[in-house]
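Sharing a chain and its predicted structure for anyone who wants a worked example. Both blocks are below, sequence first, tokens second.
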Amino acid sequence: MSDLIVTTPVLEHFREKMIYADAPSGGDDSAYLERIFSLQPVKLRAGATYIIGGDPDAALIKENERIFYLPANTNVDMNGATIQYKRAVQHHRSGYTGDSSDDSPLWQTIIFNADPNNAQDRAAKRFNGRGNIHFKNGKFDGCAFGLLHGKNITFENCEFTAVYTNHVFQICGCSDVVFKNCKFHGVHISADAGTTEIINLDIAAQYSTTIN
């Protein structure tokens, strides 16, 4: 039986098949991507650009719009596609490169493998949080990652660009996180950002509204 191209309303019926994603909506694709990423494995539309974090034509940025949650067992062949934060779209339009004095923390979306409002995620210890997360063959533009208590997480042949005033990856209390043939560029560290790394390894201590 050959692979099927299916649309959003019937995706859940083909969990065992390769899911071919719809074309980008032209607006905010966050909810759609979060949904299909729970139906693995997924292949994105070749060379497409999916926007997360809100409508790229809306000037206002809301704090809750910039959070994107990865489900456990995410398995995505990006197929040359880009996942792009709405603010990165605006940066590219304006020519912003991270060199101005405006160092807003909203310059990038945060892609988490844990939701502080989810009781199971809050109870995660050691490596029993959301894991088995795999991305390959694509680009993340304006996206930073927060990984907590996950295991078996890989990024292969991926490119990460346009992250300002933040770690590209904050990895806390995780095991078996692998980067293979990945590239990081266009990452700006401002003088006021403090200590900022491409990949930061840390303990998973409780602070503010973060997971333990």
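Comments welcome. The first strand starts at residue 19 and ends at 20.
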